[in-house]
Design a protein that fits this description.
This is Wadjet protein JetD C-terminal domain-containing protein. InterPro entries: JetD_C. The protein is of the alpha/beta class. The chain contains 16 helices and 12 strands. A 5-stranded mixed β-sheet has the order 6-8-7-9-10. Strands 1-3-2 form a 3-stranded antiparallel β-sheet. The radius of gyration is 28 Å and the shape is elongated.
């Protein structure tokens, strides 16, 4: 990459509004870049108004005189970035959408661009795949790194450029652990109850044939926030509506798990994850227990959770959390859990 382009890339990710000449020189540390080539690149950026001399700092006394400090004109940098994105759009495969980068930080563009180039080359050579394969296999084919999609934000990039839903990628997650009620498989509306803990799952299993729910799903903590994406593959129901309910511990982590799951299911299925309020309210009639004082706060999740309860219930929940207490799911015994599930009218 030529010196001017390297400087531009560096300045686009530079956070401060002023930059020292020595900081610009550091861009080329360890690279064979002659002084006159570097000076020419800096002076070109001066002439284009991207670098503006800080008058009070003066200039070097060399034959090619550079300023000791510059103001970085971010607006001019943005113009150059937009031109670069526009040029890329003209050359990219038509399925690759780059419009989102006009509103993102330049650092996003710089980080994503090497991968976008590889994806472009893949599409031009192979077109869209016709067979779904696991994420690591597709990841390796696209960018030569089997972990890129699952561990290095490749999924987010593919979503940004409009390709995630087109590349037939099978998510790699633990299988969704669930029991199915065959009597509900022909329903137009399919209700799913997700419970955080294994004890509660086992207790409710006996009531599944008696309730208007298609599945009882074992969450297993944060595992459910990934495995839930596999529901359409493990239970391929068509032309139906899904309604999701969740019951977990009333503690900071349990609330955070529900909040994360809610956001992801909303994105995947277009449906929220409702709190199974009859279970939660029954738990709140008991006394909380101590033992969760080391959990970190999840303020946004807790605020979202609390808004589903009455003021009196909110006070009780907040008091328990502040005291390092919690309401475990196991606070409700099997008979009580099953009765609540059987005799509650589950409507949205």
């Amino acid at each position: 990459m030529e010196p001017k382009s390297q400087l531009l890339r560096y300045l686009q990710s530079f956070k401060k509004s002023k930059i020292l000449l020595s900081e610009l020189e550091e861009v080329f540390l360890g690279q064979p870049c002659a002084d006159d080539i570097f000076s020419k690149a800096v002076l070109e950026l001066e002439a284009e108004g991207i670098l503006q001399m800080v008058q009070s700092k003066g200039r070097t006394g060399k034959q090619t005189s550079l300023a000791y400090q510059y103001n970085v004109q971010k607006s001019r940098l943005k113009e150059d970035l937009h031109k670069e994105i526009h040029r890329a759009r003209l050359l990219m495969h038509p399925l690759i959408k780059l419009d989102v980068y006009y509103s993102l930080e330049s650092s996003n563009w710089q980080q994503d661009w090497p991968y976008i180039e590889r994806i472009d080359a893949y599409l031009k050579q192979h077109a869209l795949p016709s067979i779904a394969v696991p994420a690591p296999e597709r990841s390796f084919a696209l960018v030569g790194d089997e972990k890129w999609i699952t561990e290095k934000q490749g999924k987010e990039l593919l979503a940004r450029i409009g390709l995630w839903d087109k590349l037939l990628i099978i998510p790699v997650a633990d299988p969704l652990m669930m029991a199915v009620n065959p009597g509900c498989l022909s329903n137009a509306v399919h209700r799913h109850l997700i419970v955080e803990n294994k004890t509660t799952y086992q207790a409710l299993l006996q009531a599944l044939p008696d309730v208007p729910f298609t599945t009882l799903i074992f969450g297993g903590g944060y595992r459910i926030t990934k495995s839930m994406e596999l529901l359409p593959m493990q239970l391929p129901l068509t032309d139906c509506v899904h309604q999701f309910y969740y019951f977990g511990d009333i503690d900071k982590e349990g609330i955070a798990i529900w909040h994360t799951l809610h956001n992801r299911v909303l994105a995947w299925f277009g449906s929220p994850v409702h709190l199974a309020l009859p279970f939660y309210r029954a738990s709140l009639t008991k006394n909380f227990v101590y033992g969760k004082d080391k959990h970190r706060d999840h303020e946004e999740a807790i605020e979202h959770f609390l808004c589903h309860f009455s003021l009196e219930e909110q006070v009780k929940i907040s008091t328990s959390l502040a005291a390092g207490g919690y309401f475990p799911q196991e606070i409700l015994q099997t008979q009580e859990l099953c009765a609540l599930w059987r005799y509650t009218e589950w409507t949205i």
